[in-house]
Every structure is written in structure tokens, then in C-alpha cells.
Known about the structure:
The complex is a heterodimer.
Chain A: H1 2-24, H2 31-40, H3 58-72, H4 77-88, H5 103-130, H6 138-160, H7 174-185, H8 189-202, H9 207-219, H10 223-236, H11 241-253, H12 257-268, H13 274-283, H14 285-295, H15 299-312, H16 317-329, H17 333-349, H18 354-367, H19 375-382, H20 389-397
Helix pairs in contact in A: 1-6, 2-3, 7-8, 8-9, 9-10, 9-11, 10-11, 11-12, 12-14, 12-15, 14-15, 14-16, 15-16, 16-17, 16-18, 17-18, 18-19, 18-20
Chain B: H1 3-23, H2 28-34, E1 45-47, E2 53-55, E3 63-69, H3 74-89, E4 96-102, H4 107-117, E5 123-124, H5 128-134, E6 142-146, E7 152-157, H6 162-176
Helix pairs in contact in B: 3-6
Amino acid sequence: xxxxxxxxxxxxxxxxxxxxxxxxxxxxxxxxxxxxxxxxxxxxxxxxxxxxxxxxxxxxxxxxxxxxxxxxxxxxxxxxxxxxxxxxxxxxxxxxxxxxxxxxxxxxxxxxxxxxxxxxxxxxxxxxxxxxxxxxxxxxxxxxxxxxxxxxxxxxxxxxxxxxxxxxxxxxxxxxxxxxxxxxxxxxxxxxxxxxxxxxxxxxxxxxxxxxxxxxxxxxxxxxxxxxxxxxxxxxxxxxxxxxxxxxxxxxxxxxxxxxxxxxxxxxxxxxxxxxxxxxxxxxxxxxxxxxxxxxxxxxxxxxxxxxxxxxxxxxxxxxxxxxxxxxxxxxxxxxxxxxxxxxxxxxxxxxxxxxxxxxxxxxxxxxxxxxxxxxxxxxxxxxxxxxxxxxxxxxxxxxxxx
Amino acid sequence: xxxxxxxxxxxxxxxxxxxxxxxxxxxxxxxxxxxxxxxxxxxxxxxxxxxxxxxxxxxxxxxxxxxxxxxxxxxxxxxxxxxxxxxxxxxxxxxxxxxxxxxxxxxxxxxxxxxxxxxxxxxxxxxxxxxxxxxxxxxxxxxxxxxxxxxxxxxxxxxxxxxxxxxxxxxxxxxxx
Lengths: 403, 177
């Protein structure tokens, strides 16, 4: 009897541990992971059998972007689930709720399992009442063993099957990889590459680590592996804003201006955090890509990438100034006038912007033949601390500034 | 009846009931696209293609047709003349206003589309993804009729035509009176 009790206790502990581990789950490591995980939990509303994470149709991308915004805002998975279900109906949720007809999905297996257990128990009782010292019926034993084995096997498959390398059955590795990411963020490129690689050993599809390792490799002069990392990060999470900026920069350096512009246009639809906009503004990446496109003779594409940025930030003086300058450079009277209008807008929104002032001064003095009107712009430009060298060269070259 | 037969009969009945219930349900797509009707209209605020700010809340007291479209979607292109006719028919009475939300589109393309095909109503080009998600838009074109009190009265998935819109308006008005 005690031996039987021991086996029962062992069985209870094993099954209980597996159930507990399954219930505990493994929280995603980063916001990008959470977005990726959540996107996989919801159906694409217009696709057949694809999740939001798998689909690339516009509405799926838009909902993913919305999920990202909510995640970045600190909303919980349950809150995000509630919002999406409220907007698209409960059928978008791959995890069925416990109410209404969908509740049957949860109730029926429990009822079936309960009925099977009761049936097994009744059969055992009948066998004990009617036995004469022989063995229990073979089908009964096999059925009981199968029931336990299948249940335990399913639980093991669900827990161990998703366990990342280095993680324990019930372990939470959030702190270790989070720490690695934070450390990598302040490390020099070579050290950062090592740290991001450690994160990727634990979680190969970590878009954040892939993107930042790619960026670190790019800064470290490892072009080939950098491109591979950045492309993979985009494939893992097409809606991750940071990687779009990194890859746009890499593509611009590779003189793939069209590819760079495409990344920025996607970025504009992602509701990126403000720091991404700050990074773009500080680097003037969009403006440089537009200049690259215009230099390649693709003025329309140049205007499109600027307009895409302006649609998200209509009062961006730098973008308005660059747009105006590119139009002025066409020297087509109608476009020059539109360009001057853009430069005027740029000066209104950012009166001290050196690009707007320098471009307008050149346009007025040398393109439309109104040098007197350029005086104010030149005075404002002269008062700018540490003006960009290329603008100084431009004005000196045009004879509007003394060298 | 033996216990085994009783159990088999019970299981069979339950299965038949489930098949009947699920077979007669609306399709998943239908349920995804009709849940908003009868509820409070989500916010529609954004910059129009002409640079002005447009807010659905400013339209209280009037019927509003909120149209989600894209310049690259064929049904949207096909429905546009019908929307123009509907807008023109209600322009003098000013009893129904239109607003379009450009979904996954470029402002320059939207401006060119309206310049070429007509239509003088506001077309929002910013925050359009958020607005579309708020409204549960799954595929353009989609149009929603919003009552003067700000409730979603009806939804039309797919292209609209002027006659259908007038009929819809009449039905909703009749239902409201």
C-alpha cells in the first residue's frame, strides 16, 4: 500500500510540476519580443489561416504597429487583448475566451477528461468487486497508462519544446538578457557585438539584438555580416522601428538610396518612439537620402521620401527646407516658386535653421535674381554658431559669404 | 438501454448540436466586421490633405459618412464617383457630411487622386493607421454612417453606390423615427 502511495505522490508531483511550469510561461524578453508574441496570438482579419505576425497585408502591419504602440505605452497583454477584441471581435483572438460558445473549447476537454477519469474509476471498482485474485483487465491498464502518458507528454512538449537554450524548465531569463542588452547599449562596438551575440544564443529571433548587433557591426566596418543581421532583424519583426533607421543608414552608405527611402517610408507608418525621430533629425538621414535620390535623377522619389516624413511631422523645418532646395535646383520657374514657398514655410517654423536660411539666400540671390531679399537670411546665417561646413562652402562658392 | 448505448447516444446528440450551432453562425469575417454598429463612433481626428485639422466630434448634429479608402484599391476607385454624387446631392442641404480616411497611402497620391477624380470633402492623411484600427477596419473600402448623436448607425463593407447610400440613410432614418 505504501509503495502504491509513493508512486501516486511521485505522479502527482511530476504532473503538478509540469502544469505549474506551463502555467508560469516564459515572459518575452523585450518589447519587440512582446510585440512578436502578441502578433502571433491574433488572427489577421483578412487572411486565411495567418496570424498578424505572419501576414504582411496593410491591415496586419497597421495592427502590429498599434500593438507596438500599446506595448511601448506600458499596457499589459490582457489590456492589449481586450482592445483588439473590442475593435475586431473575439474571432481575432487565437486564445478563446471563457464566455459564450467559445467557452466550450475550454469546457469540453475538461468534461471529456473528467468523464474518462470517472469511467476508468468505475471500471476499476467493478474489476475489484468482481476479481478473484487475478490481474486487472489488460485494456483497462493500457488505457489508464495511455491517459497519463499522453497528458504528461503534451505538457512536456509544450514546456520543453519552447525552452530557450540556457533556460531552465520553469526559469525566467528576462533579467540576464535584459542586462546584456543594457550593457551592450553602452559598450563600444566590439564589446557590444559580443554581448548581442550572447543574447542571440539564448534567443535567436531577438529582433532588438539582431538590429543592434547589425548596427554595431556596421559601425565596426563588418559590412557583410551587418547587412545580414539587419535584413534578418527586418524579417523577424518588420515593424521594429530601430532596424528601419539602421538599415536605411546602411543602404544610404551603400548608395542604395531607393532601398533606404523604402525603409524610411515603412518607418513613417510605424508610430516610432520620439527618440527615432530625434535620431533622424540629428543625422539628417532623410534629407541626405533625398539628396542622393535627386542626384540619381529621381526627384519624384526624393520628394516622396521627404513628403512621407512631412506627413508624420508637417512642421519639420529641415524637411521643408530640403524639399524647397531640391525644387529650386530644378530651375524650372513653377517648381522654383514652389521651392521658395517651402523655404518660406521652413523659415516660419524654424527661423534659426541654417539650411533654410542658406538655401533661401542662394535661391533669392542667384536663381530668382533678388539679391537684396537675401540679406536678412545671410545675416541670420552669419549669427548661427558653428554653421554646417557644407553650407558655408555653398555660400562662399556663390559669392554670398566671405571665405 | 445499456449504459454504453446511452453514452453513445448522448455523445452523438451533443456533437449534432455543436455542428448545428457552428454551422448556423455568422462567418468569422462577418462577425469581425459588424460589431461596431450600434456603438459610439470611435474618434476620427487628423490632418486633412489640405493641412486643416478635422475632428468627427465637431460634426455633432449632422450625419457623417466616414469612408476608409486607398488610392491603389480598385473598389475604392470604382466607388469614388458614387461618393462624389452622394456628396453633391447633399451639399446644398448640408445634412450629411463626408470624410475619407486614406489608409496605407501617401498624401501626395491622395491629393493627386482627388484633384483628378473630384470630391471636395476632407481627406485625412495623418494618424490613419490608428484611426483604422480604432474602427476595426479590415479591408478598404469600408464606410460607416454616423448619426448626429455620434453613434455608428450602419456599415458598408466594399464599395458603395449613391442609391445604396440614400436607401441606407432612409432606412436608418425610418428606424430612428
